[in-house]
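Re: that backbone. Tokens:
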């Protein structure tokens, strides 16, 4: 199996690209509005599964699986996961959706204290053009 091609395929099927910047303490998400909406759908699917109600339940996201959506007793953004109760995660899903409705291509929005009041990393969303393929991201 060609792992590079498989990884490219998985990023493009995911619809968005993410990475964690330890220096800036931020998760960065890159995608078109539709691609970023896939992240919202992953959160929604996670919260709809009753077996995810217990603390530390989680799913891994993306080809490298280093981002987790996780159940926890409070809203939390960490360098390993985006966590909260299922109710908290539904609130996060709605925060992202509200911002996606008004944001335009080329704009950025972030989510931090409005989700987790702790001094934690935040999430930065970069809205790319509709034709954006996550596997083409270059820094």
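Recovered sequence:
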């Amino acid at each position: 199996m060609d792992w590079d091609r498989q990884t490219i395929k998985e990023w493009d099927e995911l619809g968005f690209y993410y990475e964690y910047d330890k220096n800036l303490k931020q998760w960065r998400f890159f995608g078109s509005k539709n691609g970023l909406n896939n992240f919202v759908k992953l959160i929604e699917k996670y919260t709809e599964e009753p077996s995810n109600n217990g603390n530390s339940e989680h799913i891994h996201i993306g080809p490298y699986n280093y981002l987790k959506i996780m159940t926890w007793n409070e809203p939390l953004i960490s360098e390993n996961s985006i966590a909260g109760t299922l109710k908290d995660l539904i609130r996060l899903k709605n925060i992202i959706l509200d911002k996606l409705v008004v944001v335009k291509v080329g704009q950025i929005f972030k989510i931090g204290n409005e989700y987790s009041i702790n001094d934690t990393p935040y999430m930065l969303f970069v809205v790319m053009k509709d034709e954006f393929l996550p596997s083409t991201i270059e820094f």
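Helices lie at 3-14, 33-47, 86-102. The radius of gyration is 14 Å.
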